[in-house]
Amino acid sequence: MAVAEVTKRKEAEQRRDHRVSVGRVAERFKLARRAAGLSLRQVAEKSGLAASTIHKLEAGRVVPSLAVCIRLADALGRRISHFVEEGESDRVDVRFLSRGAGRVAHARRSLLHFEYVAEPLMNPRMEAFVVTVAPRGKSGADVPIRYRGEEVVFGLDGCVRFWVRGESYLVGPGDTLHLKGIVPHTWENGGTKPARLLMVCAFAYERE
Questions:
Q1: What is the DSSP code string of 61-124?
Q2: What's the pLDDT tens digit per position in 106-147?
Q3: What residue segments make up the domains of the chain, in order of their start?
Q4: Helix 66-76 and helix 22-35: axis angle, to 10°?
Q5: What was the pLDDT predicted at 50?
Q6: Residue 4, H or E segment
Q7: Helix (H) or strand (E) holding 18
Q8: Fewer CB in 10 Å around end: N or C, the chain?
Q9: Residue 162 C-alpha from the chain's centroid
Q10: Which residues, listed in sequence order, are joined to residue 151 by a DSSP beta bridge?
Q11: Which residues contact 119 (CB under 8 A, 6 or more apart)?
């Protein structure tokens, strides 16, 4: 077998395609909340979400939008991917990912598809992923994204429109949007073709 074919097969074996279940996400949120010693009301106050919304999420009765996941992760001092990954990360300080070897997370019935291009190091403070946004895909209409940190968005293919403080920014191939995560923002692919973005989120807290 050719070396190139062996390499491709190894990369395919390394690649893990996570079909995110509502039950798994719900259980992870519940455990993280209890580990933090917070009540539903306290998490609601820290995240700016309704306690009833968090209760439904923990009960597995709703599929949370990206914006809701980010707000809850921020309130609990966790990485976003903590709620969908299979296990705890190895405590390493250097990682290398060959092309196409990044983990993929895709929630059922979701129009968003994430490929992680930066696996967490010990005490991680950022995440980076390529997100593919199907037509009509969006961050969530229920609540804007808001968290402690910074975000850089770089357009790869197609266009995604961002709304930040009432201003509209159309991010296309080669465009960059850089903003503080604390500034409420939403985004949506209003086109007819899928769009791809490189997103880098740097958090203002360390994982415990």
A1: -S---HHHHHHHHHHHT--GGGGTSSSPPP--S-----TT-S-EEEETT-SEEEEEEE---SS-
A2: 666 678 888 888 877 776 778 898 999 999 999 876 688 888
A3: 21-83, 104-203
A4: 20
A5: 86
A6: helix 3-14
A7: strand 17-20
A8: N
A9: 16
A10: 179, 201
A11: 89, 95, 97, 102, 103
CATH, range 21-83: 1.10.260.40
Query: CA-CA distance, 40 to 171, in Å (whole number)?
Result: 36
Task: Judge whether 140 and 121 are in contact, CB under 8 Å.
Answer: no
Q: What is the pLDDT of residues 32-49, one digit of tens each?
A: 888 888 888 898 888 888
- Residue 199: what pLDDT? 95
pTM attached to this predicted model: 0.71
Copy the structure tokens of residue 98: 């060959």
Has domain 104-203 been given CATH number 2.60.40.1080?
A: no
d(CA 58, CA 29): 7
Residue type present at position 94: V
Judging by DSSP bridges, how do beta strands 104-107 and 176-180 pair with one another? unpaired
Q: Decide if 105 contacts 199 (C-beta within 8 A).
A: no
Q: What is the number of alpha carbons within 13 Å of residue 119 lying toward its C-beta?
A: 21
